């Protein structure tokens, strides 16, 4: 049971990091276009 919970936490963290990286890429991309 603990193993399943750990996997779920790891997956959620990975998704959070992925979303944050995507947003960061979007903002830098928009800044490049505006310039």
Protein described:
By secondary structure, the chain is an all-alpha fold. The chain is rod-shaped and about 50 Å long. Helices cover 94% and strands 0% of the residues. The chain is built from 1 helix and no strands. The chain has one domain (1-34). It has one helix at residues 2-34.
Estimate the mean pLDDT confidence. Answer: 94
Number of strands: 0
Portion of residues in beta strands equals under 5%
The general outline is: rod-shaped
Q: How many helices in DSSP terms? A: 1
Number of domains: 1
Percent helix: over 70%
Structural class: mainly alpha
User: Uncertain runs with pLDDT below 50, 5 residues or more?
Assistant: none
Q: How many whole angstroms does the radius of gyration measure? A: 15 Å
């Amino acid at each position: 049971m603990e193993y399943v919970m750990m996997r779920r936490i790891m997956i959620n963290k990975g998704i959070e990091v992925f979303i944050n990286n995507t947003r960061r890429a979007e903002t830098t991309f928009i800044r490049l276009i505006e310039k």
